[in-house]
């Protein structure tokens, strides 16, 4: 994923950080990418599958009567709620926050969607409530728009608009 410049954080994220400041604080800053060991891969798969199973998909409109509301889900939630819970669970397991980046994409039908990008030395992987399999970002059907900065979780970056899934796969970029 190539960074294109700064981006405005999603409104729902800003509101979430106001009410859950500890979830949005900068923890240790690490410029290094983590080695994706079998133990770490197992943790990613377990957390992704666990959250995908325990949370039932439901829109914010139905749950809260508003178009956008980011929160840690109890039983029901939408895509960003899954992401927030997965991120929290991985941080509780010792993962650095700079390796766990909330990412906004356009999904396979062009709708807004949130996924969790995990930065590793082996490439960027995606945890998604639509799929229990962990995938390289370029192996998803998504168009990547923006994500958190790995340096500061309250800063967001735009992702290069000129490289979409198909182009990136042909180039072999990770």
Can you give keywords for this protein?
174 residues, alpha+beta, seven-stranded antiparallel beta sheet, two-stranded parallel sheet, 6 helices, 9 strands, 32% helix, globular
Mean pLDDT over all positions:
90
Q: What percentage of the residues does DSSP assign to strands (E)?
A: 25-35%
Q: Helix and strand succession? A: EHHHEHEHEEEEEEH
Give start-end ranges of low-pLDDT stretches: 166-174
Instruction: Kindly name the structural category.
Output: alpha+beta
Shape: globular
Tally of strands:
9
- Widest sheet, order of strands: 1-9-8-4-5-6-7
In helices, the fraction of residues equals 25-40%
Q: Count helical runs.
A: 6
Report the oligomer: single chain
Biggest β-sheet strands, sense, barrel: 7 strands, antiparallel
For the CA atoms, what is the radius of gyration?
Answer: 15 Å
